[in-house]
Amino acid sequence: MFSRAKEKRKRQPPTEEFVLSNTEIRLVLRFVLAMAAWIVFTSLLVSDANRENELIEQLRTSGITTWATVTDKSMTRSSRSNSYHVTYEYEIPDAQQVYVSVQLTTQINSEEYGSIFKGDTIPVIYTADAPRLSRSAATVKHWNYNQRLGESALFIVLGGGFLLFLAVPKRWLWP
């Protein structure tokens, strides 16, 4: 009787093991590399928003307002959105109270872009610690950190979901 039970066990088909093919292994490795690149890129996005937010908060609390002359303005079009830039020049006193000219190009919103022209004077706010760091007064007034961070978070979620969808073998999703 013992030998028959052993025989019956031998005749049962082997159970299927979960084995990845070489193609699936390469796909998983690509996914891991893409996720690593995605994490680095999104952390740079968030750190850029944080850095800009710190500057704006510093300008709001201890910034010095002055008038600057618009020397140029430009618009960059992309498939996703447009970005608007203005170049302005203002004078700041140095340690010997001699005025030094500072020229800076910075991003502005579309409303501000439409309302200024080359040669106009606009209010800008700069830091006492680093007078070459400035933003237009309108940019400081309308800065919305949560919106900027929300755009980054949306990119993080959608980008990660898309990478996950591309990397997961279809047989795992639809058996």
Please characterize this protein's 3D structure.
The chain is built from six helices and five strands, in the order H-H-E-E-E-H-E-E-H-H-H. The chain has helices at residues 2-11, 22-62, 110-115, 137-142, 145-167, 170-173, and strands at 64-77, 82-93, 99-108, 121-126, 134-136. Helix 2 runs antiparallel to helix 5. It is elongated, with a radius of gyration of 29 Å. The chain is an alpha+beta fold and 175 residues long. Strand 2 (82-93) and strand 3 (99-108) form a beta hairpin. The protein has a five-stranded antiparallel sheet.
* Helix content class: 40-55%
Q: Globular, elongated, flat, extended or rod-shaped: what is the shape?
A: elongated
- Strand elements, count: 5
Written as H for each helix and E for each strand, in order along the chain, the element string is HHEEEHEEHHH
Low-pLDDT parts are none
Number of helices: 6
Radius of gyration: 29 Å
Query: Major sheet: size, sense and barrel closure?
Result: 5 strands, antiparallel
**What's the N-to-C terminus distance?**
40 Å
Mean pLDDT: 76
For the biggest β-sheet, the strand order reads 3-2-1-4-5
Strand content: 25-35%
What structural category arises from helix and sheet content?
Answer: alpha+beta
